[in-house]
Amino acid sequence: MSPWRAALHNAVGLGLFAAVTVGAIALTATLTGDRIEANQERMRQAALLEILAPSAGSDLDFDLSDTVSLESQALGHRQPQTAVRARRDGKMVALLVPLRIADGYSGDIHLLLGIEADGRIAGARVVEHRETPGLGDAIERRKSDWIESFKGRSLGDPPLEGWTVKRDGGDFDAFTGATITPRAVARGIGRALVWFEEDGRALLETAP
Questions:
Q1: Among 41, 167, 204, 208, which is least packed, fewest CB within 10 Å?
Q2: What gap in Å lies between CA 93 and CA 133, rounded to an integer?
Q3: Burial 113-134 (b: 16+ CB within 10 A, else e)
Q4: How far apart are CA 44 and CA 154, in angstroms?
Q5: Strand ranges inside 117-186, DSSP E
Q6: Alpha-carbon distance 110 to 40, whole Å?
Q7: 3-state secondary structure of 189
């Protein structure tokens, strides 16, 4: 075989190999992305129900079909997000909002926060984070009950300056060896309550 034919043969072979490889990577990424998105949606739905009915014997008959688009930098959003106006027996129960906290130790912390019409917190659940295992991951409900310390609290209980950890003069505990993560979550939830008083409450009052 002449040198140019050998070179052409090799080039065609490499081209086919590259095309097959790229196709396989794209297919894997698509399938993996779909699974990740499905898992995230399952986690979100589970978090919604945990916030609304945390005890095993609670009635889970909630209507979560009433959604509204949110665009709020106060909640850490870079693009529109979906909030849920939860009902039970036709009565408005709470506004469930996604919250992105950008100042975690290892990056963004994503929560779902339930706020009742009177401004009290129905509950909060972390749905995504990259905090340090064994330290910052205590924000997860399955790792500790720390996140439950926000339930029933509101803006004024404590005042806004109290929405941080005790080390900073706030109302909330930190973790042994980890202060940045709980500080970020407490401050982020405090900011979300300010948003609720200024803008969020109207979403419940104008709900169809």
A1: 208
A2: 34
A3: bbbbbebbbbbbbbbebebbee
A4: 23
A5: 121-128
A6: 11
A7: helix
Closest CA to 189 of 172, 167, 169: 172
| CB 134 within 8 Å of CB 109 | no
Q: How many Å is the Cα radius of gyration of the chain?
A: 23
Q: What is the mean pLDDT of the chain?
A: 83
166 DSSP 8-state letter = G
pLDDT digits (tens, 9 = 90+) for 76-116: 988 899 999 998 888 888 999 999 999 999 999 999 999 99
Considering the entire predicted model, what is its pTM? 0.78
Q: What is the pLDDT of residue 189?
A: 97
CB 181 within 8 A of CB 108: no
**DSSP calls for 168-207:** GT-SB--BTTB-HHHHHHHHHHHHHHHHIIIIIHHHHHT-
How crowded is residue 193: how many other Cβ atoms within 10 Å of its Cβ? 23
Yes or no: say if 136 and 181 are a contact pair by the CB < 8 Å rule.
yes
